[in-house]
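Predict the 3D structure for this chain.
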Amino acid sequence: MKNSEKKLNIDYAALQAVYWTLSGVIFCFTTVFLQFKGYSNYEIGIIFALGNIFGFVLQPLIAGYIDRSGRKSLLGCIRITAALSLLLMLAVLMLPKNCLPLTAAYVILLAGNTLLQPLCISLSFYLESWGCRINFSMARAVGSLAYSLCTVVLGMLVQSVSANSVPIAYIVFSFILGLITLLFSAKERKHRAVLETASAGDVEKPSGIVEFIRENRRFTLFLAGTALLFFTHSIIGNFMIEFIRNIGGDSADLGNVLAFMTLTEVPVMLLFSRLTRRFRCSSLLRFAVVMFTVKELLIYLAPSIAVLYAAELLQAFSFAIFVPASVRYVDEVVVKRNAVKGQAFVTTMITLGSIFASYIGGFLLDNSSPSFTLLTGVIVSAVGTLVMLLAIQKTK
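Done. Predicted structure below.
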């Protein structure tokens, strides 16, 4: 690997680390922070749902714009989202408890974070168009390590200092994300002329949404299964503190469990390129979607924190495989002119699952029990697994 290529991989891994730190802050600790601000689980569920709906609408629109621009606007979109997130979280720090402006700010912040995920994934393909090989699974593993560290440290800060540690952390890392995007600027300018020439010679235009669905019927079914599968994944992620309290834990346990879960992802992501030499991407995906439901069933059955740790070991065989495998799968089954749109649609369906998970999860927790909420999720996840097993196309 050349020095310039090595530096680009380090910069991209740093960007993934900061993005997943931001995700850990906002998705793992929003419930804790908003409860501190006087919101009920149902109200928090509504906020998650509205944020995901907003992100759901924005993702394909922004992806279409980036595809039409030849991906030259990708870094700019990441910078703008980071800057807006920083300003909004500053406002959150100054707003009073349980008020409409605070609700609106959090809705936009959640939408912005969901928008960043497909942009950060697509950035790896944009960087490869500069003639450099990007090791996505390695960068994503670094992201998991950062996520793990974030949840441990922030869990301790929330428990021992204040829930205001949540917005402060988000402000700091939004600023760092903006700075990291500047590391790519010099290299981007160097390749600008080449990129513009390539764009000018590309006569293929990206498909519209309806046309995309018509061209990719099996992939559309895959997207539907993704939404169902991530319904339960999102319930567990958004309301993990409730499930931990139900078996005798607290905020410190939340940070530790999430850190442990994320650490289990790292070895698999680091070795993912080796796995793809032995197994088809489609086979890895089929295995991963089955393990999602097995893991969630074990979480439902867990009577203690110790057993919950054991259940979270299966994160290595579900989420850790699904993330890099789905990125590669989209690259193999979706034509290049729709590259960003294809990646965005996967994240959009994950977001759609989160929308229903947020609303239904909050409602069920306030009106039934954590156990019944998890059981509902396991049933939905099992249906999603079956749909995806039917939808996944055989790859090379």
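The mean pLDDT is 86.
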